[in-house]
Amino acid sequence: MDFAEKRLRLVIEVDGSQHADPPGQKRDEKRDEFLASEGYRVLRFWNHDIDTNMSGVIDTILLALNT
After folding, report:
1. Tens digit of pLDDT for each residue in 2-56?
2. Are the beta carbons of 9 and 41 closer than 8 angstroms?
3. Torsion-angle region of 15 (φ positive above 0: left; ψ -120 to 50: alpha; else: beta)
4. Helix (H) or strand (E) holding 24
5. Are 20 and 51 in contact (CB under 8 A)?
6. Residue 9 needs a FRET pair 20 to 30 A away by CA distance; which of 2, 21, 38, 62 works?
7. pLDDT confidence tier of residue 67, bands split at 50, 70 and 90
8. Alpha carbon of 1 to those of 16, 25, 31: distances in Å?
């Protein structure tokens, strides 16, 4: 878990290339299922998105916080 807003039950994950391979995808899926079972929403962003589209990332986070 990279960031969590506990009161609003929001987790933000920043993923690198290791999350693209099948074992990484399976780990992420299990983690997301667990967090969802605990009432959390999970937002995932690729490192590349953080580096090249920070305004879009922020907009997505703000939208999630306001819903």
Report:
1. 899 999 999 999 977 676 678 878 988 999 999 999 999 999 999 999 999 999 9
2. yes
3. beta
4. helix 22-37
5. no
6. 21
7. confident
8. 13, 14, 9
pLDDT of the residue at 49: 92
pLDDT exceeds cutoff 70 at 62: yes
**How many CB atoms lie under 10 A from the CB of residue 67?**
6
Q: How many CB atoms lie within 10 A of CB 24?
A: 14
Residues 6+ apart with CB under 8 A from 57: 45, 49, 50
Please give the Cα distance from 17 to 3 (Å, whole number).
18
Q: Could you tell me how many residues make up the chain?
A: 67
Reduce the DSSP state of residue 2 to 3 states and report it. coil
